[in-house]
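User: Sequence for Diacylglycerol kinase below. C-alpha coordinates please.
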Amino acid sequence: MRHEPAFRLEIYLFVLFAPLALWLGRSGVERAILLGSLLLVLIVEMINSAIEAVVDRASPERHELAGRAKDMGSAAVLLALVNVLACWLLILGPRLF
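Assistant: C-alpha coordinates for Diacylglycerol kinase:
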Protein backbone atom coordinates (compact mmCIF):
# COMPACT_ATOMS: atom_id res chain seq x y z
CA MET A 1 0.00 0.00 0.00
CA ARG A 2 2.90 2.31 0.75
CA HIS A 3 4.36 2.07 -2.77
CA GLU A 4 1.19 1.92 -4.87
CA PRO A 5 -0.89 5.12 -5.01
CA ALA A 6 -3.60 3.46 -7.14
CA PHE A 7 -4.00 0.65 -4.60
CA ARG A 8 -4.14 3.21 -1.78
CA LEU A 9 -6.97 5.05 -3.55
CA GLU A 10 -8.83 1.80 -4.13
CA ILE A 11 -8.48 0.91 -0.43
CA TYR A 12 -9.97 4.28 0.52
CA LEU A 13 -12.86 3.71 -1.89
CA PHE A 14 -13.35 0.20 -0.50
CA VAL A 15 -13.53 1.57 3.05
CA LEU A 16 -16.12 4.08 1.86
CA PHE A 17 -18.25 1.74 -0.25
CA ALA A 18 -18.07 -1.56 1.69
CA PRO A 19 -20.43 -0.35 4.44
CA LEU A 20 -22.75 0.99 1.74
CA ALA A 21 -22.73 -2.40 0.04
CA LEU A 22 -23.72 -4.09 3.28
CA TRP A 23 -26.40 -1.50 4.00
CA LEU A 24 -27.90 -1.21 0.49
CA GLY A 25 -27.92 -4.90 -0.35
CA ARG A 26 -31.36 -6.36 0.39
CA SER A 27 -30.27 -9.98 0.49
CA GLY A 28 -27.12 -11.90 1.19
CA VAL A 29 -26.60 -12.42 -2.53
CA GLU A 30 -26.88 -8.71 -3.29
CA ARG A 31 -24.49 -7.85 -0.47
CA ALA A 32 -22.04 -10.49 -1.68
CA ILE A 33 -22.12 -9.17 -5.25
CA LEU A 34 -21.74 -5.52 -4.21
CA LEU A 35 -18.94 -6.27 -1.76
CA GLY A 36 -17.32 -8.95 -3.93
CA SER A 37 -17.06 -6.61 -6.90
CA LEU A 38 -15.15 -4.16 -4.69
CA LEU A 39 -12.84 -6.88 -3.41
CA LEU A 40 -12.19 -8.03 -6.97
CA VAL A 41 -10.75 -4.61 -7.83
CA LEU A 42 -8.28 -4.91 -4.94
CA ILE A 43 -7.29 -8.43 -5.97
CA VAL A 44 -6.74 -7.48 -9.62
CA GLU A 45 -4.79 -4.36 -8.62
CA MET A 46 -2.48 -6.50 -6.46
CA ILE A 47 -1.89 -8.88 -9.36
CA ASN A 48 -1.26 -5.92 -11.68
CA SER A 49 1.26 -4.47 -9.22
CA ALA A 50 2.99 -7.85 -8.98
CA ILE A 51 3.24 -8.08 -12.78
CA GLU A 52 4.69 -4.58 -12.98
CA ALA A 53 7.22 -5.32 -10.23
CA VAL A 54 8.37 -8.54 -11.88
CA VAL A 55 8.66 -6.89 -15.30
CA ASP A 56 10.62 -3.97 -13.84
CA ARG A 57 12.87 -6.37 -11.91
CA ALA A 58 13.54 -8.59 -14.91
CA SER A 59 14.86 -5.78 -17.06
CA PRO A 60 14.96 -2.02 -16.82
CA GLU A 61 15.00 -1.79 -20.64
CA ARG A 62 11.84 -1.12 -22.60
CA HIS A 63 10.58 -4.22 -24.35
CA GLU A 64 7.43 -4.75 -26.40
CA LEU A 65 6.36 -7.82 -24.44
CA ALA A 66 7.00 -6.12 -21.10
CA GLY A 67 4.88 -3.19 -22.21
CA ARG A 68 2.10 -5.49 -23.33
CA ALA A 69 2.16 -7.34 -20.01
CA LYS A 70 1.84 -4.07 -18.11
CA ASP A 71 -0.92 -2.86 -20.43
CA MET A 72 -2.87 -6.09 -19.97
CA GLY A 73 -2.57 -5.80 -16.20
CA SER A 74 -3.88 -2.25 -16.33
CA ALA A 75 -6.70 -3.32 -18.65
CA ALA A 76 -7.66 -6.03 -16.16
CA VAL A 77 -7.95 -3.37 -13.43
CA LEU A 78 -10.11 -1.26 -15.73
CA LEU A 79 -12.39 -4.24 -16.42
CA ALA A 80 -12.68 -4.92 -12.69
CA LEU A 81 -13.75 -1.29 -12.19
CA VAL A 82 -16.29 -1.60 -15.00
CA ASN A 83 -17.55 -4.75 -13.25
CA VAL A 84 -18.11 -2.73 -10.05
CA LEU A 85 -20.08 -0.14 -11.97
CA ALA A 86 -22.17 -2.79 -13.73
CA CYS A 87 -22.92 -4.72 -10.52
CA TRP A 88 -23.88 -1.62 -8.56
CA LEU A 89 -26.05 -0.24 -11.39
CA LEU A 90 -27.80 -3.55 -12.03
CA ILE A 91 -28.58 -4.07 -8.35
CA LEU A 92 -29.23 -0.51 -7.21
CA GLY A 93 -30.30 1.11 -10.49
CA PRO A 94 -33.88 -0.20 -10.53
CA ARG A 95 -34.41 1.19 -7.03
CA LEU A 96 -33.15 4.62 -8.04
CA PHE A 97 -34.81 5.01 -11.42
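Helices lie at 5-24, 28-58, 64-96.
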